[in-house]
Design goal:
The chain is mainly alpha-helical and about 150 residues long. The chain contains nine helices and no strands. Helices cover about 70% and strands about 0% of the residues. α2 packs across α3, α2 packs parallel to α4 and α6 crosses α7. The radius of gyration is 18 Å and the shape is globular.
């Protein structure tokens, strides 16, 4: 039965008929708003339609979580160009804390540890450590956009 459903889905898609995924997690309007909020929190700017619609499709079809999108947008060239490459490592870490954990670093010693991580692992892995940390999971889970706390 699943094979028949898949074949029917592919035939309808090839025919140009819009078929909604059966495992949709979010309605399109809700997914759009979530992605717009991620853009404001992480990139500090409004999202353009072409940008947020692409990201929102992952939420609608259930292939990514909000947490995944925060990470993906966080490792973008745009994020690196605005908040990492132009900043000192300490300032980049401060900004990552604000964008991904919703707060400033708790101490200069903690900031220094994150700076060491940034220097040794690079920005992608450092962002991954923040976004998939127990702190992030505890405060925001997989379905909430980080916010100032």
């Amino acid at each position: 039965m699943k094979k028949v459903s898949l074949i029917l889905f592919v035939v309808l898609m090839l025919a140009g008929i819009n078929v909604k995924a059966q495992n949709a997690i979010y309605k399109q309007a809700d997914a759009d708003e979530l992605v717009k909020t991620i853009y404001l929190q992480v990139l500090e700017r409004e999202a353009e339609v072409m940008g947020y619609r692409g990201w929102a499709s992952y939420l609608v079809n259930g292939t990514k979580t909000v947490q995944d999108l925060v990470y993906e947008i966080g490792i973008s060239y745009e994020y690196a160009g605005k908040f990492i490459d132009r900043e000192t490592p300490a300032e980049a870490i401060r900004l990552m804390h604000v964008h991904f954990l919703g707060r400033e670093p708790e101490s200069s010693a903690a900031s220094d540890r994150w700076v060491a991580s940034l220097k040794s692992l690079g920005s992608r892995e450092t962002i991954k450590k923040m976004v998939y940390s127990s702190e992030y999971s505890h405060n925001f889970g997989k379905t909430n956009v980080p916010y100032h706390r």
